[in-house]
Amino acid sequence: MLSVSAIAFVGAVFLAAGLVKGVVGMGLPTVAMGLLAVTMPPAQAAALLLIPSLVTNLWQLFTGPSFGGLCKRLSSMMAGVVLGTVAGAGLLAGAHTTIAQAGLGVALVLYALVGLARAGFTTPSRHEVWLSPLVGVASGLVTGATGVFVIPAVPYLQSLRLGREDLIQALGLSFTVSTVALGIGVFRTGALVSPSAQLAGSVLALAPALAGMFVGQALRRKMSVETFRTVFFAGLLALGAYLALEAVL
Q: Per residue in 42-80, pLDDT tens?
């Protein structure tokens, strides 16, 4: 049984994570994993965020303007995400999780600095047919090692030069598929001591996550495209720095 202070801590974590996700379209697993891992094993933290991550990503996915078109365009990437995540889920309970987390944090920082410097890259549409599944598998393996769904999926989706709301919806699609695949992988590996208790806690964490996301989305809609772009990359920079420092310290 969790203490009142532990429940309050988990609620605050998911409120903050939902707020970040509402503003920049991502960050709930990153923030939640980074903070929860201070008090519990990574595999248990990943199980705790499954329901909030799934529900908030579905919300983000179905409120966008281009669901059908994005599903068709990104189908091979999503297949790769499932394959890579399920195959690599055992890494989350392995001995090299800290190294993987530090590497992910550094990669996020570098990508954010490139974006803030306006030196981003563009993926020509003719290369998507072979690049999408490779990016999906790589993203899945990173998810399996860290419980975070960001690299290289986010830079790749950003390189497709989607509109603001289309990008948010594409992120929702990628993260939804990653969440489901991670859930399958974590339970398949038997890394959890008490799956039913973890799922119950995950359900309870949903309310603060939704509250934070609702507020964050309201803030995002008031931003200009340029402000959103700056906040997006600044958010990536902060998340990456946090992951790297938390792993090192």
A: 777 777 888 998 898 888 888 777 888 999 999 999 999
Residue 62 one-letter amino acid? F
The tokens describing 59, both together, are 């919300």
Domain ranges of the chain: 4-248
Torsion of CA 225, 226, 230, 235, to 10 degrees: -10
Whether this model's pTM surpasses 0.90? no
Q: Which amino acid is at 70?
A: L
pLDDT tens-digit map of 77-114: 999 999 998 888 776 666 566 776 777 778 778 878 87
219-222, Cβ contacts within 8 angstroms, sequence gap of 24 or more: 219/22, 219/23, 220/22, 220/23, 220/24, 220/25
Q: Tell me how far apart the alpha carbons of residues 198 and 84 are, in angstroms, rounded to a whole number.
A: 24
Task: Yes or no: say if 34 and 14 are a contact pair by the CB < 8 Å rule.
Answer: no
